[in-house]
Amino acid sequence: MIASRRVLLAALAAVVAACGGCAVVQPWERGTLAKPSMATVQPPHETAQKLRTYNAKEGGAAATGVGGGGCGCN
Amino acid sequence: MALPGIHARAESPATNPWQLDASHFEYSESGKRMNVRVNQASAIVPIGDAFQLKANALQDIVSGASPQFNSPGPGGKPQQVLTGASVRDRRNAGDIGATAMFGESELTVRQGWSKENDYRSTWTSLEMRHDLERKNTTLAAGIAFSDDGVSNHDTPDEFRTRIKRDLFVGVTQLLDERSLVELSLQYSYSTGFLSDPYKLVFVQSGGLLADSRPDRRRQTAATARYVTFLPAIDSALHVTGSLSTSNWGIRSGSVEAQLKKDLPGEWLVNAGARYYTQSSADFYAPLFQDDPGPTRSSDYRLAGFGSVAWLAGVSKQLTPNLSLQLAAERSYRRVGLRWGGSGIEADNYIWSLYLVTLQARF
Fold it and tell me: Is residue B54, in this structure, part of any structural domain at all?
């Protein structure tokens, strides 16, 4: 467990460090990033219902954020 | 997570608009098992440019049969025993929250409730987001605390406590003019009554015993997402991967890939696939020869299995203020796709979900 957590934290640190070398994208260069197809945020109800389904039917986990409650049984 | 400002449609009427969402969700399983119907509504009310109030309410109705335990079938092969189609439950849930935006930061607090006949939940979360370098980088963090009570139909007034704490951190980084990456970590720690009061295990030498799980569960998960625009096909590629471990012995991994394409007339279509795999819990077995001791479960969700799913959706901006979204997913569970451990063919099944959402922004 502890080893796994260290690997995950090391992965996060590596990405953050690697991004130190990322080019700065200026606001006027974000036309493509602003396309609806590039949005990383889904409709909130769709996200909530899909995550609830996965949580109810799978024994694993994902890093998807906090909040929400209820059984999700059966 | 989101990089604020880069996903808003050009037609959005305001930077901090009123937002109203209403949706209907349908979930069903093969073999005449569970069906779930959910109606949900939520609202975000701006107060000035730097404050929002949020409210969300839903009601779901669950009906159908659910696997209860496995018994030895012909040749000793495990077979599922279902509860019968008598399960029917109604859940009411809601949450309220507030978001304050100051400078490059945003702070959200939420308080939620969920209630059904045999399960009650009260939860609180605190999330914050901070933009760096003109929103090239967004940092996010959150904590949540959930205080739940679990009973069953035989003892409906006896609620046993289940506590869950969540810790989340994440970073979103623009890589160039057409791609970005997100990396998130989450740690969850649950204590109390974590068993399922309706599940049983079959012990060859002793008959049926109650499902009994460890009273502590620690889960650690990492999720990465890469989004890039592919000019050759004029579409965006979204790839999401997750890994998780837990002290119950379950390891899991998933990969999802989707193509999303903007079409004339403010249509957006998407299609993709998801692969999921997990190993079984240390205390899981389809059948037990002898009493395994204080922890034991034959719950199909703690078995080793994998699944392959396809997913699709379509979205249409009807007016500058109104949009409609449809989403669907169909998942095929197979024991042969498991990461490791044990599982049984009898637990293979298919589930499908459909969701329609109407969004208004003023």
Answer: no
CA atoms B121, B90, B312, B263: torsion sign: negative
Comparing CB atoms, the residue among B23, B177, B252 nearest residue A33 is B177
ipTM of the complex: 0.93
**Best of B86, B130, B173 to disrupt the A interface by mutation (most A CBs within 10 Å)?**
B173
Of all residues in chain B, the one with the smallest CA distance to A58 is B301
The predicted-structure confidence for B166-221, as pLDDT tens digits, reads as follows 999 999 999 999 999 999 999 999 999 999 999 999 999 989 999 999 999 999 99
Give the residue on B whose Cα is nearest the Cα of A8: B222
Paired residues of B161 in beta bridges = B149
Q: What is the separation of C-alpha B316 from the centre of its chain, rounded to a whole number of angstroms?
A: 25
Within 12-71 of A, beta carbons closer than 8 Å to B belong to 12, 15-16, 19, 22-27, 29-41, 43-46, 48-50, 53-54, 56-71
Burial B38-67 (b: 16+ CB within 10 A, else e): bebbbebebeeeeebebebebebebebbbb
pTM of the entire structure?
0.92
Count: domains in chain B: 1
- To which residue do tokens 């050009």 refer? B10
Domain that holds residue B276: 103-361
Q: Is A61 in contact with B188 (Cβ distance < 8 A)?
A: yes
Question: Which CATH number covers residue B108?
Answer: 2.40.160
pLDDT digits (tens, 9 = 90+) for B255-314: 999 999 999 999 999 999 999 999 999 999 999 999 899 999 999 999 999 999 999 999
Chain B hits for A63, Cβ within 8 Å = 168, 170, 184-186, 221-223, 242
Q: How many residues does chain B have?
A: 362
Q: Which residues pair with B254 in a beta bridge?
A: B242, B276
Is B137 within a domain?
yes
Is the separation of the CB atoms in B145 and B164 below 8 Å?
Answer: yes
